[in-house]
Amino acid sequence: MAKKREPQEYTTDPAAxxxxxRAEELGVQTAFTRADDMVPxxxxxxxxxxxxxxxxxxRLTKDGQVGICGATIDTIQxxxxxxxxxxxxxAHSDHGRDMAxxxxxTANGEAEGYYIxxxxxxxxxxxxxxxxxxxxxxxxxxxxxADFYIAQFGQQRGEVLPVRRATKKRQQLWRExxxxxxxxxxxxxxxxxRTHIGDDQDAEHILEHAIRTALADGWAGSMIATDISDILFxxxxxxxxxANLGVIKEDMVNVIVHGHExxxxxxxxxASQDPEIIAYARAAGAKGVNLSGICCTANEILMxxxxxxxxxxxxxxxAIMTGAVEAMVVDVQCIMQALVGLxxxxxxxxxxxxxxxxxxxATHIEFExxxxxxxxxxxxxxxxxxxxxxxxxxxxxxxxxxDLIPGFxxxxxxxxxxxxxxxxxxxxNDAIMAGxxxxxxxxxxxxxxxxxxxxxxxxxxxxxxxQDVLIVQTGCGAIASAKLGLMLGEAGLxxxxxxxxxxxxxxxxxxxxxxxxxxxxxxxxxxxxxxAETGGLGDDIDQIPAVGLAPEWMSEKALxxxxxxxxxxxxxxxxxxxxxxxxxxxxxxxxxxxxxxxQGWEERYGGKLEFIADPQEMIKATLAHIDxxxxxxxxxEYDPTRFGRSGDSKMLQIEALPLEKKREAIYGAAV
Length: 671
Known about the structure:
Blueprint: H1 7-10, H2 14-26, H3 31-37, H4 42-45, E1 49-50, E2 58-59, H5 73-107, H6 119-128, H7 138-154, H8 168-177, H9 184-194, H10 203-233, E3 241-243, E4 253-258, H11 262-272, H12 275-283, E5 289-294, H13 295-305, E6 309-311, H14 316-320, E7 325-330, H15 338-343, E8 349-352, E9 363-364, H16 372-385, E10 402-404, H17 410-416, H18 426-434, E11 439-443, H19 455-466, E12 469-473, H20 475-484, H21 498-507, E13 512-514, H22 521-534, E14 546-550, H23 556-567, E15 571-574, H24 592-605, E16 608-611, H25 615-632, H26 648-655, H27 659-667
Parallel strand pairs: 4-5, 4-7, 5-6, 7-8, 8-9, 11-12, 11-14, 12-13, 14-15, 15-16
Antiparallel strand pairs: 1-2, 3-10
């Protein structure tokens, strides 16, 4: 059994530390303590165990050893990794399919409470796919777009058309490699077929289909989900929000939405503002209903509605332990089964809502879009009715929260760099070319209780900011920075490199840009594509000085995201353990797959996937890659001393001078 850690070793978040002390006092377990008690299997963790048939499981731990069917270590690792990527792609893409059906129902007036909020984006997206827009109502356009999107999932031949939004060069490369997805469902099914006992037995061939499957997620399923969310709920723009457990309020009915489906959370938000619900809550003795979010649902309603985030993945149990949460409403993905048992120590009701997800012991109120507002009100009334059961002696809310500015969609980033008259990525490209910005890093992904919560996210973020690297974030990584206070215009600029600081002060942006939920990693792909098409940084993503990082990854979805980013030309670094690390000291060929997803994929796609456990090595590899790409483009070598003598920071220095010195600094010595 591993040594039990102290609260400050489990997490860097002060609110979480308080709640872990509280958990020990109450004698309840959390994911943090269960991680200490559960010793991971080193053979399975290295991808060296095959359980794809009833002859095994086969564990390959000796040099030259093969499975009962004769499968070699590289075949087994490639199969395991591809199956994980297929599961992650299925999860994200199934979300996109549900959104497409919701768009169809909304267009036909069959979805209660939903309407098209962003007609401009609807028309723009329809234009990508040659859907007529002139002289047609938004509903007519949306109906055709929904049909088009739904077809992308079941299509059997040809190409999924959202790939046409990649650079021309990238599209041609995918076609030459034969990895353009034919249809989302087809690629996921084929991934499972190829990895069945007795099928594909060439590791490189298996992993090429992993690329195709992941592309079906990134350039179809997830991109579809993001587009439809913007059309129905509004394209995000900067808005004030808050994050951490201190957003829970003692005098209100607290409802936390957790999961990934904005169709549910947006309707819960709408219902909570209904006068009927407000009156119902007041009649129960509360001041009203206080909503907050966990995980990607938190990001969805945070960036569009300003609804606060109670925390990221590892906060879900801690929020219940405040004793002040009447209901945690969940839908799909990243929901711990432990919630129900934990909630029994308090009064919190766990309410499942998806037909795909039930948890034994939870209350199930199935959400259905055709009567969405009615069901949302039913869910809130269930929570309000539970308010009277709150035990004040068990209530403990850490008073820790931070302000943030989320909502940096790729559309808004384009606008903020040039305004309505000349919106463009040109200023960003110019700042990179000049060296004010050294490069860009996308720091995304999960929390993992096997590392200290948020530690790796925040360490890598802060160190890269010092090196003039602009940070964009999604998912739980974004909430980590939000809780640290790095998502405000003035926040942390004293710790930001001089060139990046100039840019942030000039444009009026935080040094870390919140871009949404995990499916919104497609926004990052869109930004990189537009940067390539703007010019000056090459003609494809693999030439841009940019790196993707998932320091605390844990889910199969993260592997799918990483793979479609690699296929798009990005260098992706994961922290923690590799699922295909093998045991090179014991099995000679156990690093074949690990080398292929790095060196092999880089030769074929210009992107690579590497697992680096040490955060300092992660930072070093990131900066080395950015500098290598700068040199290949012929850009000036990064030199932080060249910048930082203009902009607001200079004016603040002048303001502190005596009057005569101030005039001299502004107008020159002659005055």
